[in-house]
Amino acid sequence: MHIGLDDTDSKKGGCTTYLAALLIKELEQFKVHFIDYPLLIRLNPNVPWKTRGNGSLCLRFKYNVQYEEQIKETAINLWEEQSKFKEKGTDPGIVIYKSQTIPEELTAFSKKAETTIVKLKEALKLIKNVGAEAIGFNSCRGIIGALAAIGEILDADHTYELIAYRKQENIGTKRRVDEKSIFKMDEITAPYTFNNVDIEKNRIIITPRGPDPILFGIRGETANIVKEAFELVKTWEPIERWVIFRSNQGTDAHLKAIKDLSKITPYSSVIVKGIVSKNPRVIPVRHIIFSIKDDKKEVDCAAYEPTGNLRRIARELIVGDNLEVYGAIQKPKADKPWTINLEKIDVLNLAQKVTTENPLCPQCEKRLKSMGKNQGLRCEKCNSVFPNLKKIEKPVLRSVKNGLFITSTRSQRHLTKPFRRFGQEKKNYRNQSLISKWHSTSE
Fold first, then answer.
1. pTM assigned to the model
2. Which of 211, 234, 298, 306 could join 411 via S-S bond, C-beta 3.0 to 4.6 A?
3. Fold of the domain built from segment(s) 255-350+398-412
């Protein structure tokens, strides 16, 4: 059985991963056998109606058929109990699917939900075709994510996240963790964990800020490494439970390469090549905007202030630089053109930057002065006049170099692949055994 869950939280609280953690414990009474870690699948980060990280969940397990109806009833009751469906913008969904395998059409649906906008009508049609069951509240958009979580089998690149949850009485208060232990953990487990700390700002980033039940989350390459990292973190408040999830986080799953700029569509994330056509300019709050073009279209590229080093690189670009840019497509408005909100810039080839200066006097080698527009040059020392001499071009050494540049750690999306992961991408995942202790509760 595969149980997909999505959009049970709100901006005021709740958490779909916490619902999954509760359900894992509840299912133990039916002696289910989990055939995979619970999946934490991040979907298209540009969906305008997402709550926060646009994450959906899936539990996969074998079960005794005599408990089938009890399992379904338990899952649905817990989903209803935990869903913040009375809050504006919360549209919970649950999908239950019984199958030995995941059909290709369901996997294709999941990939589409990671990169673009999917309509509920399409999800409902697919649910009917594969014989799944679904329930939703309000607009029922959560059904889309729940189905997509089931369809994502993560048979190629993937990562893991261990999420530790707070006691209920502490939710809404400041998270009490030992920051020094987190910096130490990051140092010990590098490069096999990622996005633990922001070196630029010298602060930790594994703790969320909202009123949700998550105390912290550690992301890494294997289940064992995130568990090892977890044991290195010290906290000053009790942990209610923790779970290891398998995920598409940090894999660039949301990015889709397109051939040219004319193919961009709103709310998608793309990889596309272009030539810088307008020099960078600063807009309020220190954001940097420049333009790129190809044979068919010109678009703006935006490096916002929180992107850190990426913004500094963007500022150094000039017309003629050859780039491959990665980022989200912002829907154009009457006063705002097509824009790519940058996540990465790959500088493929730099244009030659030059400066101009007056030549030296051929008579006394003192720098000549201009006599006015189109009036030639003269030497202030020997008074020689040179009506036909012009300024000379001098190459300028560029501070930016060829190579890939990524937005700062603090502004990276859940799906953005950080530098630490390059070279560690996984090629497959086939029926690997779960580690002996991949979840725990203090209850």
1. 0.91
2. 306
3. OB fold (Dihydrolipoamide Acetyltransferase, E2P) (2.40.50)
